[in-house]
Amino acid sequence: MAPVDTDVRIEELDLTDPAARATWHEVMERAVRADRPHALVTTAAAFEVTATSPSTFYARTWLQAVVDGEVVGVAELELPLSENTDVARTEVQVLPTHRRRGIGRALWQAVAERARTGDRTRVGGEVTVDVADPGPGRAFAAAMGTVDKHREDHLVADLPVPVSGVDEAYDVVTWRGRCPDEHRAAYLAMRNRMNADVPTGDLDLEPEVLDDERLASSEERLMRAYDVRVAAARRRSDGAFGGYSLLFVPHGTDYGWQDDTLVMPEHRGRRLGAALKSANYADLPDDVRSVHTWTAPTNAAMHRTNTALGFRVVEHMYEVEARIA
Ligand SMILES: CC(C)(COP(=O)(O)OP(=O)(O)OC[C@H]1O[C@@H](n2cnc3c(N)ncnc32)[C@H](O)[C@@H]1OP(=O)(O)O)[C@@H](O)C(=O)NCCC(=O)NCCS
Predict the structure, then answer these.
(1) What class does CATH assign to 158-318?
(2) Which residue has its alpha carbon closest to ligand 1 atom 37?
(3) 3 lines ligand 1 (CB under 6 A)
(4) Distance 59 CA to ligand 1 centre (A)
(5) How many helices and strands (H and E) does the chain possess?
(6) Is residue 54 reached through a cis peptide bond, with omega within 30 degrees of 0 on the bond before it?
(7) How far away, in angstroms, is 99 Cα from ligand 1 center?
(8) pTM (2 decimals)?
(9) Superfamily holding 9-145
(10) 282-302, pLDDT tens digit by residue?
(11) Residue 6's pLDDT is what?
(12) Is the CB of 31 under 6 A from ligand 1?
């Protein structure tokens, strides 16, 4: 076992200090990018929103490892407050200059201690590794006692992608930011269907349930850091919504981040998923050059849709979990 760095101090980020917040984010970004050229990293603006306006649905703490007065490692701890109240989520990062000295382990232990205090029995997290050159993340996660629960591929496509037309029985309704009032009930039904349907492998988690208030709170927070774009398919004959696709463009960046795409069961088989993604991409400003997405390799329909649009797999993401009770 490598010697533990006895000079390391684990402390909580002082959220009232803008310079400390900026340092935390900068160390996180440098540590992530060291092994992952294709990583999608939370922007400084998005981190500011999360760190300075507490959410009603998650309690979050940010930890940092300090050696000789310098922050050399960071961890985020998230405790869901509405569903999955037995679970804590975390990500741990250490700068390459300070690895293999027990700093990651010290951060993990501080996370686990706080998770236990918050009555959690499991700690979960995402470990994402480059396809060509996987870094130390998986070995570290295994050493912390985690097991794999689910896998997704992280894919990237360069824009523009081939246009995929929409079935003539439907039209495409788009909005940016807040969902208009007249579509909210249908949108909420689809969002909750998505949360219940999305494949999550062996992860034993309750789906998040959105109501109008929770959707509004999420929209308001997201809009502060992202251009939020939705394309939805509406059947011409009866106005029924058949699916939606949700895309974020972080402010000040040249990429999109493809979030949910759902086609409701009775509307499947008409390539609406590809049409909705394609409609969102076609509408983006010219300076947005690429789109990132995540799909379980077992989700054959979505994998085919993505490959046809030109997406290629750049990273593997593993959802891992450790029992801490
Ligand atoms: C993964 C990471 C956090 C490890 O930080 P670290 O400070 O080097 O970790 P530690 O020194 O505490 O290592 C703890 C144990 O993890 C395992 N481990 C860590 N790095 C390893 C490597 N490169 N190869 C094999 N095992 C490794 C070992 O079992 C190690 O114990 P040992 O040194 O006694 O053998 C760091 O490499 C990193 O920031 N990577 C990028 C982000 C990431 O992948 N985070 C994990 C997702 S939560």
Answers:
(1) alpha beta
(2) 136
(3) no
(4) 26
(5) 8, 12
(6) no
(7) 7
(8) 0.93
(9) Gcn5-related N-acetyltransferase (GNAT) (3.40.630.30)
(10) 999 999 999 999 999 988 888
(11) 66
(12) yes
